[in-house]
Amino acid sequence: MVELKNTSSLLEIRGMVKRYTLGETEVLALNRVDLTIEEGDMVAITGPSGSGKSTLMNILGCLDDFDAGTYIISGEDVSKLSGDKLANIRNRLIGFVFQNFNLLPRLSALENVELPLLYSANKDAKAAARKALEAVGLADRMHHEPNQLSGGQRQRVAIARAIVTNPAIILADEPTGNLDSRVGKEILEVFHQINDQGRTIVIVTHDSTVARHCRREVQIRDGQIVDIVEHNRSARELVAKAG
Amino acid sequence: MLLWTTIKIALRSMLANKLRAILTMLGMIIGVAAVIAMLALGNGAKSRILGWVSRMGKNTITIFPHNPKMPPVLNGSAEPLTLGDAEAMLKIPGVKYVSPVVTSSDPVKWGTNETYCNIIGCASTYIIIHDFQIQSGHMFNDFDARDRSSVAVIGPETATRLFGSQDPIGHTITVRTERFKVIGVLVPKGRQGWFDPDNQVLLPYTTAMTKLMGRAVALNHIDMQVDHAVDLTPVQEKAEQVLRIRHSLIQGDEDDFWISNQLQVIQMANNIGGAFTMFLGSVAGISLLVGGIGIMNIMLVTVTERTREIGIRKAIGARRRDILRQFLIESMLVSLMGGLIGVAVGVVAAHYVKFRNFSGQVEPHMVILALSISAAIGIFFGYYPARRAAGLNPIEALRYE
Questions:
Q1: Which residue of A61, A91, A104 is in closest CB contact with B309?
Q2: pLDDT tens track for B103-127
Q3: Which end of chain B has less Cβ packing within 10 Å, N or C?
Q4: Which residue in chain B is spatially nearest to A64 when comparing CA positions?
Q5: ipTM confidence
Q6: Furthest C-alpha separation in chain B
Q7: CA of B393 to nearest chain A CA: how many angstroms apart?
Q8: Which domains does chain A have, with CATH numbers?
Q9: Domain coordinates in residue numbering, chain B
C-alpha cells in the first residue's frame, strides 16, 4: 500500500481514527486510515458490513467527527470543524447520493434539486437546477414529484441535486442498491458521464460489479485499508459493456 | 433559505395533513374567537354603562345624605339634607341649577289603569340638570312649587301604561289618595340598567313633601349642575365646606353626607368595565394557552415524522438555524391561520350574541392583539419542537425509518 504524499490532492486523510463504544466494548471503526483522492478520480470503497466503510463515508461526507487524524478537502482542513461550519462544507463541497434516493416528498424534481442552493442563498437556483436536471436526462420530468417518478428517475434527480452546487466531490452510498441491474447500469452510466466531465466521485458499495466500474477500488477490512486495486480502462469498458 | 420557500413547504405539509392541521388549529380558533368575543362583550358592557352615565346629565354633582364610608350605625345619627342645604348650594359660585329631590315608589292610577313607578319631587330645573326633554305639554315652574300645585309631568313609559295611545295632558292621575293633573310628558331616554327614567312621575318638591311624604324635611338627594366653563372639583370642594359648616361638623369628623360628581361615576364605570373586560379576556386567554399546547404536541409529532427529511436537509447543507426557522415558521403559520379564522368567528359571535341588552363591540386593537398573541404562541410553543429538530444528528436522522 503506497500513498504518495501530495499536498495538492483534492481529498486527503491522514491517520484517521474513529472509535465507538458499544456497551462496555470499544470498537475501532477506523484504525489509522490514510487515503488520498485526486481530482477527477472515480473511487470505489468496498468491504463487508462492519468493515468501517460506512464510517469512512460519513466522515468523508463531513457528517461525523473523528477521534484522531486530519482531513483536508479542497485545501480546507475540516478536522476541527463542527456543527454549522460542517453544514457549510457539506453544502459547498460535497454532493450526496443515497441508496434510497432521499428526495423530499411533496417537492417537485426541480425544487428538490434547487434545495442545496437555497441553503447557500444562491440567486440563480432555478436556472442551475434546470441545467443539472438536463445533465442527468430529466429535462421533461422537472415538475414531477418523487412519487410520480421511477426508481431510476429518482436516483437521477438525486444525482442532479448532488452536482447542482458544483461540489468538489460526489459521495454515493450504494447508489444502485435499490435498483434492478438494468437501471443500476444506467445510473452507473450517468456517474461515468459526470466523471468524464471531470467530477470526482466516491462510491461506497459492497457490489464488486459496481466497484469494477471505478478507476480504483479501496478495500477495507476491520477499519483498515487492506488493498487498493486499479481497474484499467479497458477492463472497465469491458465491465460496462457486459453490465 | 428563502422565506417564501419555507412558507410554501409549510403550507404543503399542512395541505397534505388537512385534518390534522384543522384539528391543531381548532384550539387556536376557539381560543382566539373566545378572546375576541369576550373582549368585545366587556367593551360593549363598558360603553353601555358609560352611555347610562352620560345620559344622567352633564356636569352634574349629586349630594347624598349618608356617607358610605361611615358605619351604618353612625349614619342613623347623621344630619339630614334639608331644603336649607339645597338653598345654600345655590350661593356657591359656578353652580347653575340646584334641585332638591325627594323620592318614593308608589302605584299611580288613572281610571282602572294602574302602574308602579318612581315618584320624584323636584324643582323645575331637574329636567335641565338631567337633560330631559319635554315631548308634549310643559314642565311645572317655580310658581307651581311655591303654590304646591297638584301638577305632574310623567315619563313616556308611564304615559303609555296609563293612557295607552291617548293624550294624557289635562287628565288627572291618582297617587295614593292625592290627585294630580298631568301637564307634561317627557321624551324617552331609554332604560338605564336598574333605573328607568321613562317610567316616573315628576311633582313639584313642595307638593310631594307635603302631600305624599308627610311633611318630611329630609331630602333624598340634592342634584345640581355646574356651569360648563367651570371645573367640577373646586365646586365640589366648596359644597363640602359649606355643608360641613351647616351640619356643624368639627375638624376630624367624617362628612355625614356624600358628594359624587359625574366624572367620578364615569371613572368608576370605566374601572368596572375595564376589570370586567380583563376578567373575561383572561378566562378566554386560558383556552389560547391550551391551543398552544396542542400546537406543541402536533409539532413534536411532526418533527418525529419528518426526521428523515431533517436528515436530508442537514446532509445537503442546512444549518441549525435553517431547520429551527423552518419549524418555527410552520408552527407560527398554523397558529396564525388558526388565529385568523378565530378572529373571523369571534367577530361574528360578538356581533350576533347579545348578552342581556348589550352586544359586543370589536375594536381593531383587539384583532391586532389576538393575532399577535396567536403568532407569539406559535413561536413560543413551536420553539421546543423546532429546537429538537435542529439538534438532530444528521447520520441518525438519515437512518431513521
A1: A104
A2: 988 999 998 999 998 999 999 999 9
A3: C
A4: B395
A5: 0.90
A6: 104
A7: 9
A8: 40-63+82-242 (3.40.50.300)
A9: 3-52+267-399, 66-256
